[in-house]
Amino acid sequence: MGTINLINGGLDIQGIVDNLIYVQREPIRKLEEQTKTYQDKVSAYQAFNTKLLAFKTSVESLLYQGDQVPFSFPSSFEERLNNSVFALRTAQSSDEAVLTATASKGMTIGDFTVTVSRLAKFDTYASNNFASDTGTETQTGTIVIQKGVGDPVTVTVDDTNNTLQGIRDAINRANAGVTATIIQDGSASPYRLVLTSSESGTANALSITNNLKNKPGTALTFSRTVSADNAALQINGINIINSSNTVTDAIEGVTLNLRAASGSAVVTVGRDLDSIVAALKDFASKYNDVVSYISSQFTYSATDKKAGLLAGDFTLRRAQGMISSTLMGTINSDGAALRLLSQVGLKRNSDGTLTVDEAKLEQALESDFRGTAHVFLADAQDAAGGTVSIAPQLFDQLKSMTDTLEGPVFRAQDAVQQGITRINKQIEQMEERLEKQREILIAQFAKADEALRQLNVLQTSLNSQISSLQGLQ
After folding, report:
1. What angle do CA 144, 146, 152 make, to 5 degrees?
2. Which among 318, 314, 336, 351 is positioned nearest to 388, based on CA atoms?
3. Phi-psi bin for 333: left (phi > 0), alpha (psi -120 to 50), beta?
4. Backbone phi and psi for residue 365, each to the nearest 5 degrees, phi listed first
5. Are 207 and 145 in contact (CB under 8 A)?
6. CA atoms lying within 13 Å on the CB side of residue 51
7. CA dihedral sign, ordered 167, 173, 176, 181
8. Distance from first CA to last CA of the chain, Å, rounded?
9. How confident is the model at residue 206 (pLDDT cuts 50, 70, 90)?
10. Per residue in 388-437, pLDDT tens?
């Protein structure tokens, strides 16, 4: 008569429940995969929006070239031309040792002969010599400084700042219209306090009243070392007096930086063709980035066996259609010889991208500058009576597309994001139900485990009794 084996006893409750819950989480895992796809789709929209914004910035630069975008859009071709990259100018000096020049947008093209006979000077005073800039104490009192017809400024010197360094710092803190510095002249007592007017010209000459009289201390005196003076020059034979060596208002839109006290130079103001070409190349490059991104989304990959996440997306198709239609349109304006981008060196390729023929573009700019600008900034109408202006239309379209409240890209992205939010809420609810199910299963298997353990005790008892009976035989 052998032993009786009722049950081994002892369950791996955690492992059993984990396996059961894993099976029941299959719908959640599918939802999580869907969420990952949606998140990737949001990222794809964000990447597309970034490329649209870069293109918009390029168009904005074409239209305004660094200036702030006006609230009221320029209504005429002339206004747009004077605000755009086509209005950029260069200013070349025939002798930069005499002067250099810069020109603002829209400046009239031409040559200006400039003859400099005197440079403007800054009124300057220097103190007597001191053996130390920190160790020698001066008398105390006040120093009153007046620049031109400005208000006098009083600087107090007391026993807390009565050294050259202390006085220098006090004057600079006082904003008296002067710059205080300390120089060393190489003598036995080399230190001198120097006060220089913050602006050149006779109108900015200094008046210094030294009221340092309280003793003990070394006397501080000032003497003028450079007298204020105005710059003198001629522009095309007309005499000009200017308080500064930077002459901004003699030639409208041109800034002259005088460098030599005498000499002549011819300033040539011309169109900045290099910057115009660079801006149009950037325009084409940013457009190509948008087109290439759309193409990458729509193209089927034989390797991955799928197209992009936004394949066939209405938002991308709409953007592609609007931009392409605007760029490839014909400018129907009376008297305009140039009507297409291809005529000024921007050729559309078979894949929708643009190639810039720099030589053809430069030739167009040199031979028909206004006509070339007109292609981009046209004040014209299409066959349906609508306004045809490539850059302005693109700017409006891109501004609308990338609007962070009502733009189509934002709305499409927001719709996907809302889908993610709904799925996450659904997952959260399902996880809560599974957690409750886990608790129930653990409780159920704990009872079963307890019952099995009791059976195991019974089995041990029975086996013991059987062994005892076998011993009586």
Report:
1. 65
2. 336
3. beta
4. -65, -35
5. yes
6. 19
7. positive
8. 11
9. very high
10. 678 888 888 888 899 988 888 889 888 888 888 888 888 888 888 888 88
Q: Which two tokens stand for residue 359?
A: 């030589």
CA distance 29 to 22: 10
Q: How far is CA 286 from CA 54, 274, 275, 379, in A?
A: 6, 18, 16, 24
Stated as kind and residue range, the H or E segment containing 115 is strand 110-118
Entry field: residues in the chain: 473
- Residues linked to residue 263 through DSSP beta bridges, in sequence order: 116
Predicted confidence (pLDDT) per residue in 333-381, tens digit: 666 677 788 889 999 888 889 999 999 999 999 999 988 988 888 766 5
Report how far residue 394's alpha carbon sits from residue 329's, in angstroms, rounded to the nearest whole number: 12
The residue ranges of every structural domain in the chain are 1-88+272-473, 89-119+231-271, 124-226
Using CA atoms, how far residue 179 sits from 46, 128, 135, 144, 447, in Å, is 52, 17, 22, 14, 91
Q: Are 55 and 390 in contact (CB under 8 A)?
A: no
Measured at the CA of 355, the angle between CA 353 and CA 357, to 5 degrees, comes to 165
Supply the DSSP symbol for 386: -
What pairing do the DSSP bridges indicate for beta strands 153-157 and 140-147? antiparallel
**For 96-100, 166-170, 296-300, which range has the lowest pLDDT when averaged over its residues?**
296-300
Q: Tell me the residue type at 147.
A: K
Question: Would you tell me the crossing angle of helices 358-367 and 369-377 to the nearest 10 degrees?
Answer: 110
